[in-house]
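batch_manifest entry 22 of 60
target: PAS domain S-box-containing protein/diguanylate cyclase (GGDEF)-like protein
source organism: Marinomonas pollencensis
requested by: lab member K.T.
priority: normal
notes from requester: please return tokens only, no post-processing; we will run our own comparison against the previous entry in this batch. if the run fails, retry once and flag.
--- input ---
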Amino acid sequence: MHNVTGYSKLKVALIPLTVSVVGLIALFLIFPPSLFFTPSLMSFTIAAVLGCSAITSLMLHRMFMKNFQVISDLFHSIDDAIIVKDYQGDFTFCNKRVAYLYKSSPEKMVGKSDYYFTKNKEQADFFLTSAQEIMNRFQKEVVYESSMDTNTSETRHFSSIKIPYRDTQNALKIAIFARDITEVTCLKEEADKNQKRLEHVLDVSEEGLWEWNIQTNQVLHNKRWENIIGIESSQETFVEFEACIFPEDKAKVGQALDSLLTRSQPYNIEFRMTRPDGEVIWVWDRGRVAEFDENGDPVLLVGIILDITKEKQNQQKVERLAYHDNLTNLVNRTQLEVELEETIAASIQHNQYSAILFLDLDRFKLLNDSYGHHMGDKLLNLVATRLVEHSTEEMVVSRFGGDEFVIIYPLVDDNEDKATFEAQRYANELIEAISKTFFIENEIHDVSIEYDISISIGGLVFNGQDISTGCLLQLADLALYRAKASSVPQAFIFGIDMRDELTHSSQLLKDIRQSILDLDFLIYLQPKLNRDETLIGAEALVRWQHPTRGLLAPAEFIDQAEESNFIVKIGKQVLLQACEQLSIWQSSDSTKHLTIAVNLSAKQIWQSQFVDDFMLTLSSFDIDKSKLIVEVTETVLLQDVNDATEKMNRLKAYGITISLDDFGTGYSSLNYLHRLPIDEIKIDRSFINDFADDEQVKLMVTSIVNLANNFGLNVVAEGVENIEQFAQLKEINVDAYQGFFFSKPISLTDFKRYLLT
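--- output ---
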């Protein structure tokens, strides 16, 4: 520290000695010499003075050393860099923080310059010039500068206070107190980068940026906003914007803005606008309150707007394809079930009987085999046209699949016998109409043929009491088989009492109940792979190891399990086995990345304690919950969409991954994309089957993938059966794949062997 002050330990020791000598001389000058001329008194006086001087010197030395140590410890404990340099730039003092940066010690740094430690002459010269200029001006300055950390070779940034002074020997020196602001500097640089990134993102995303001053009603926006809305900046921008909102949408936009301003509810809305040039567009507008006044009232709103006209047009196309058969344009199977549900409700409400008819084409396979599927498709279209021509506006005509059609005849009569008679009459009329010769042209090979077919019709009359859509379809299907087995060319229409023929299902239910107790339900795993055919997980599919009938696939028992609510207990056993398998995988580095998906039945989710029971099951296993995927279909939403959404959100909060299964087959799949907290959608296998050959299906699947990408969702294609489907799906950037092309569902033992391959 003497290098800082100019004082030394010797100087401190000589101070009391000097004072003593001066005092002794003063005694001789003040008092008569005769008093000191006695030898004994003089010796005593000199000894006393020198003794006091020695004691005083020792005490001052100890005080100096103690204070020196306190100051030194204080400086060394400070995280900021503390430096003292002479005019030549050599260190005369530094604390431990500086020594650490220079990979040295405070003692070894004294008398050396920056260059000695950094070997960076340019930096050392800069530090020396800066210090000398400040010492020459002899004024305190605050500067920002950088230095290299010799431990990590990284550059550190400092805010330094530099104070020039002169020590006790009048030597010019400079004290430097430097605070490390590297992290702050890096954060600022990152913030600047993020600001530039945001500007680029907004440009790339084609989103318009706006801010609305509520007090002045002024709207500021970027150029993209003007391009979307077609309104240039003016004093009346908000008024002009409001005038462009589609009349039918003004109320909901006003309500959304009011909810934002008064209740701070999210402003996130899609609506239509008519641009000044007359073009009608769809926009997606989002915003939030950015500033409040002293009373807590909103002052400034900020938001972004996006033109989603093309997406809406594509959505309409996809919805059309999703709800209708892409070949005949008739109602598809999924929509049929919805229509049938509504008919059941109407029958109950009006106390009337309705009818459901199953139709199957005879000799259709012969046409396909003889002339090819192209001609078969032509015939199906012609049959669909005749069915529509011979149906009323109230009837629902659907292609059920293959060469099967279903017609719903609602509210036939309030008398069961009359309703049965009318349904029989109408069905026989259809048989006659369809049995007339069809003229089919093949444009590909320039061939025209006349083809005669017949149809079989089976049906059921019902009044909606104690009947489900699944049961109705099953009974009508049984009626169709009865009709096909008969040699009489007429329809077979039965009453609701035909369900007695399903009594065999009662034994099945008994077996299910016992097998739940015996833990006979187990999981098979179907591998899930990515675009590189790398295994990324598996779907757990339930199988029933029946005590007498052997291994049963879900098709043989799942409907009965659903209807009887046994599916809830079966689902729990599947979840337990899936978690156990996931725990095994996560105990090994080679498999801990794998995911496992389980299907959730609507009946499971509709249970009031579903989430609590689900998480209680998971709590028995120490697993990464994000590797567990639950697959749901939109069926779970039909009973109570708000309840189902709330439960899915709770699962999501626990880290569970949510997948929307059978996407595209439902009548409102797109509607649920923004309502459910989903991470993934699975394209239904029915689309994959026709993907390689049907351009309409290919368009729809491509639209679904693009839509999922816009929502940031993972896309899985299930039912991939061949290399052609796989290759084409990869071209449209599907993320993951399942299907027999890779592997059928296999047992846990076989899956272990699969991992080794």
